[in-house]
Write a structure and sequence with these properties.
- The protein is of the alpha+beta class.
- The protein folds into 2 domains: 211 residues, Rhomboid-like fold (Up-down Bundle); 75 residues, no CATH class.
- It contains 17 helices and 6 strands.
- The protein has a 4-stranded antiparallel beta sheet with strand order 1-6-5-2. Strands 3-4 form a two-stranded antiparallel sheet.
- A hairpin with a 2-residue loop joins β5 and β6.
- α7 packs across α8, α12 crosses α13 and α13 runs antiparallel to α14.
- The two termini are 37 Å apart.
Length: 407
């Protein structure tokens, strides 16, 4: 999606500073699947704690002192804030990035993650810095680190105060990464100011590391666009490029030697050169994240040879793109080909669930939908996915046997 900027007015060059409030996030393009009640509760708790703190003067009693830390203060320090601006900036970041993380982790898991991020940040501050520290920044940085791992391809719309004041949309990884890099630099500079930069980068490191680990062991709902999936996709493409560079021809495979010796070679497809060309163009389009173009080329490829199937991740990417473009018959065929050729895919139940939903909601092939939903439910472990499959199966149960018959 192209960046958009609305110019408001010009500021003097002295306003171009690396200050947290020179870039203010307004929203992201990540969609929510459920209401993030826990994140909203945490925001409300921080606001309430600030009111109580201001009224009763509890800052010194509940702040974390690196010279004399207590277990209680590792929890309470993150509920305190220096002023309204400190509170507002932390809660804004938590609202913008925490809603989607809450959606992915669930309410209990998100609360545990948030508290652990605050504690880890506090420990890092105690070990590396001196004096008192207050604020939810460490926990908020842990949440933003988790967001960057879970939604690396998302975009954030921000209000900026540099030479100009305006609104721009950039990749969220750039936005979050800027703040991480700034805090890491300021932590080791001699001009860190009255800011606990150690707690910030420690929270960010905690969020990135823990979320990556949870994804790697499948304790968080997976999709094709989180960091772990993108890394695996990049590694498969690297291995494929290395193989082809060494002389391997992926289109020249003819089966086991014994089978080749006992039969005549199959005749080449009359449009083999065009097939190779289209496959190469699809691969290039996916490498450039141009999924609409890849989907269009895939449709052309299928018109030439309906049995053509792409590499595993490429087939998934194209199928997902076709579904997002509401080309549901083509998407269903792409997913069907995937299941036929990649039976050992580690998250095959997610593909079966997607096929079941497409057949049930858009193609009215209820018997086929029922088959895939039942198969998916046998292996799904996420509560949301299971509830989705059960609900859809219950809805179409009376319709089974009345849908469109397969051609």
């Amino acid at each position: 999606m192209p960046s958009r900027r609305l110019l408001f007015f010009i500021l003097p060059p002295s306003s171009f500073i690396l200050h947290p409030y020179s870039m203010i996030p307004l929203r992201t393009d990540s969609r929510l699947r459920a209401t993030p009640w826990m994140n909203w509760t945490i925001i409300a708790a921080n606001v309430a704690a600030f009111v109580v703190q201001s009224a009763l003067g509890l800052t010194e009693k509940l702040a974390l002192n690196s010279s004399d830390p207590s277990v209680l203060h590792f929890f309470t320090y993150s509920l305190l804030h220096a002023d309204v601006l400190h509170l507002a900036s932390n809660m804004l970041f938590l609202y913008i990035f925490g809603n989607n993380v809450n959606d992915k982790m669930g309410h209990v898991g998100y609360l545990a993650f948030y508290l652990a991020g605050g504690i880890f940040s506090g420990v890092a501050y105690v070990l590396t810095s001196g004096g008192f520290v207050i604020g939810a920044s460490g926990a908020v940085y842990a949440v933003t680190g988790a967001y960057m791992i879970l939604f690396p391809r998302a975009h954030v719309t921000m209000l900026y105060f540099w030479f100009y004041v305006g609104v721009i949309e950039i990749p969220s990884a750039w936005f979050i990464g800027f703040f991480f890099a700034k805090d890491l630099f300021m932590n080791f500079s001699h001009d860190g100011g009255n800011v606990a930069h150690a707690a910030h980068w420690a929270g960010a490191a905690f969020g990135c590391a823990v979320t990556s680990g949870l994804l790697a062991v499948n304790l968080l709902p997976r999709d094709h666009f989180d960091v772990v999936a993108l890394f695996k996709q990049w590694n498969r493409r690297r291995q494929f490029r290395d193989l082809t560079a060494s002389g391997y021809d992926p289109f020249a495979y003819t089966g086991p030697r014994a089978a080749v010796e006992n039969r005549l070679p199959a005749p080449a497809h009359p449009m083999q050169d065009r097939i190779h060309e289209l496959r190469g163009q699809i691969s290039d389009a996916i490498d450039k994240d141009d999924f609409p173009k890849a989907a269009d080329l895939y449709i052309q490829l299928r018109k030439i040879d309906p049995e053509q199937v792409l590499a595993r991740q490429a087939q998934l990417d194209v199928a997902a793109q076709l579904a997002s473009q509401q080309l549901y018959p083509a998407a269903a065929e792409a997913y069907e080909l995937f299941l036929r050729h990649y039976k050992n895919f580690e998250q095959i139940e997610q593909v079966e669930l997607m096929l079941g939903l497409i057949y049930a909601r858009y193609l009215e092939r209820y018997d086929r939908a029922k088959e895939y939903l039942i198969r998916a439910m046998a292996r799904l472990h996420g509560e949301r996915e299971l509830a989705l499959a059960r609900g859809e199966l219950k809805r179409i149960e009376p319709l089974a046997g009345t849908g469109t018959a397969p051609a």
